[in-house]
Every structure is written in C-alpha cells, then in structure tokens.
Amino acid sequence: MNTRLFQATCLVLTIMLICPSLTFAQELQTVQLLEPQTDGGRPLMQVLKDRSSSREFSNEKLPMQVLSDMLWAAFGVNRPESGKRTAPSANNRQEMDIYVATADGLYLYDAKAHMLMPVLPEDIRAKTGTQQFVQEAPVNLIYVSDFSKMGNAEENKKFFNSAANTGFISQNVYLYCASEGLATVVRGLIDKPDLEKTMKLRPDQKVILAQSIGYPKK
Ligand SMILES: Cc1cc2nc3c(=O)[nH]c(=O)nc-3n(C[C@H](O)[C@H](O)[C@H](O)COP(=O)(O)O)c2cc1C
Fold it and tell me: Residue 129 CA: which ligand 1 atom is closest?
C-alpha cells in the first residue's frame, strides 16, 4: 500500500471511530406506522363523486397518520383473526407487495405488523415512472407481485390476477385520497426492467403499476 493510500485509509477509519453516526447516517430505520383511524373519512358517495387522477403535487411530506391510514386503506389487514385484507386477492394469495418510495428511501409495507421495512437508503422516486411529476410527489407506491406466492399457474394468469388485484388496491388509495383531499394518479408508464433492477427485485417479483400520492400543488 503506498503512503497516500495508507494515510487516506487511516483518516477514514479515524472518522468512523470518532463519528459513527456520520458513517451510518445513510442507514434507513424501520418505521412503526400509527394505528389506522377507522372512524374518519367522508361519506362514500361524496368520495366517489370526487375521485379523480391528478398529476400536480406539492412537495409537502405526508403526516405519519395520513401515511399510516393510506397504507392500511390500500391493503392493510382489516380482519386480524384471518389475516385478510382491505382489498380482495384471487384465491386469497395476497401476492401483492406495496413498496413505498420517499425522499428518505425505499420501504416495504409489512401489512401484518403495520410497519415500513427498510429496503434501500436512496431516493428512487424519479425511477418509479417516466413522467416528470413522479420525482415531486412525496410518496410513490410501487405495486409488486410476488409470483412465487401464486403456485403453478401459467405466467399470463399470474400477470392477469396481479393486475386485477392491483386495481382493487389502487382504487382503495384513490378513494382514501379523495376523502382526504390528496392528489393521486395510478401509473403504468414505467421503465419496468430499470425499476426492478434499481429495487434489486428477484426475477419472480414483477412491477405491475405505481401510484403517486401527495398534497395538490397550490
Ligand atoms: C392501468 C392504468 C394505468 C395508468 N397509467 C397512467 C400513467 O402511466 N400515467 C398517467 O399520468 N396516468 C395513468 N393512468 C391514469 C389514467 O390516465 C386516468 O385514470 C384517466 O385519464 C381517467 O382520469 P380519472 O382517473 O381522473 O378518471 C392510468 C390508469 C390506469 C387504470
């Protein structure tokens, strides 16, 4: 090892020893979501009247209660005794996973624990779609199907069921957003191979759709 390289290595090791918080600042923490507030929301018929897609987002972050309620509405556990969810799934396979891309990093929604599990300590929002606004929305959900949970069905059947199941989840998010005055749009315009690579998904995990969520731009 030459002298310069040796000195640089010593400097890095010293910084790591003196300031471990700097070294691990990039680490993403598990987030315990708040219990969903199931007594809120506007009447269903009014919410249906307001449901729409919007593509202009303020960069204001979602409060923790709003994020927690939105994810529970999307595909949370609503019957703990059976583990069943707020959206149906073919044969109750529950193969859809919701990844949550924020400025802080990428998380996986664990519905049973109602927690966000860290996946990547990077802001990958710009990679979740080919439209400009996706990097401005504070939250982009990525709906990923885990084909390994779908038995021996043919691949086109797996895609069909995953797409149908994603539609129910996405509509739950639309209705929650309409109730709360949030802007949202479900999206298929995604460079899927690039996103799957960025997210480090396994070959049997497939990106189906994404959905941007945030407060409307003022
Ligand atoms: C499967 C699917 C894929 C979509 N993909 C996109 C998309 O990539 N980008 C986008 O801006 N909107 C996308 N949309 C939203 C539609 O453009 C939108 O629902 C449609 O224009 C009707 O508007 P509304 O939702 O306000 O009724 C998609 C909708 C669906 C159901």
Answer: 8
- The tens digit of pLDDT for each residue in 50-88 reads 999 999 999 999 999 999 999 999 999 999 999 999 999
Ligand 1, atom 19, residue with closest C-alpha? 53
Distance 112 CA to ligand 1 centre (A): 29
b/e sequence 180-200, b meaning 16+ C-beta within 10 Å: bebbbbbbeebeeeebbebbe
Quote the pTM value. 0.90
- Given ligand 1 and candidates 170, 173, 186, which is best to mutate, with the most ligand atoms within 8 Å of its CB? 186
Detail the DSSP E strand segments found in the chain: 31-32, 77-79, 84-85, 96-101, 106-110, 115-120, 139-146, 183-187, 205-214
Residue that the structure tokens 């539609």 belong to? 167
**Sign of the torsion angle spanned by Cα atoms 8, 13, 19, 25:** positive
Which residues lie across from 97 on neighbouring strands?
144
Is the CB of residue 52 below 6 angstroms from any atom belonging to ligand 1?
Answer: yes
| Helices 64-75, 155-180: crossing angle, 10 deg rounding | 140
Residue 68 and residue 56: Cα distance in Å, rounded?
22
Take atom 10 of ligand 1 and give the residue whose Cα is closest. Answer: 187
